[in-house]
């Protein structure tokens, strides 16, 4: 043991659900920046390698206008949790659930979902505008554009 326990989140993870137009944009939506993508890859890889029930919490960044423009559903309001509690359960290969509890989303996944998540995060361009997993739906919208900082 060590990889999962030593893991620290870096980068930004944007995770939300729409309050309107849920017919065209059902479920949950995920965008990461480059550092956030690598951080999640590192976490999921460590979970799979250790192959033991594991829980880690990641912090969610409030989706920016630039991030919300990626799926082109700008008119809908959104809700995002402050954090996501990720629970890897290798005892249930097909585990996949996502529940919302107050300001936290609880995501439980097994080996099959871990494989899908890792594959997509490793090749984000290939899976842009794709539903990673269904029931509940988890859409992946790729890598967030870097935030430009203008000189002060």
Note the topology.
Elements: H1 3-6, E1 13-18, E2 28-32, H2 34-50, E3 54-59, H3 65-69, E4 78-79, E5 83-88, E6 96-101, E7 104-109, H4 111-122, E8 130-133, E9 138-143
Parallel strand pairs: 2-9, 5-7
Antiparallel strand pairs: 1-2, 1-4, 3-5, 6-7, 8-9
Helix pairs in contact: 2-4
Structure description:
With 152 residues, the chain is of the alpha+beta class. It has a single domain, classed as 2-Layer Sandwich (Gyrase A, domain 2). The protein has helices spanning 3-6, 34-50, 65-69, 111-122; strands at 13-18, 28-32, 54-59, 78-79, 83-88, 96-101, 104-109, 130-133, 138-143. The strands form two sheets. Strands 4-1-2-9-8 form a five-stranded mixed sheet. A four-stranded mixed sheet has the order 3-5-7-6. The longest helix has 17 residues, at 34-50. The mean pLDDT is 90.
Features:
9 strands; single chain; globular; alpha+beta; 152 residues; Gyrase A, domain 2; four-stranded mixed β-sheet; five-stranded mixed β-sheet; 25% helix
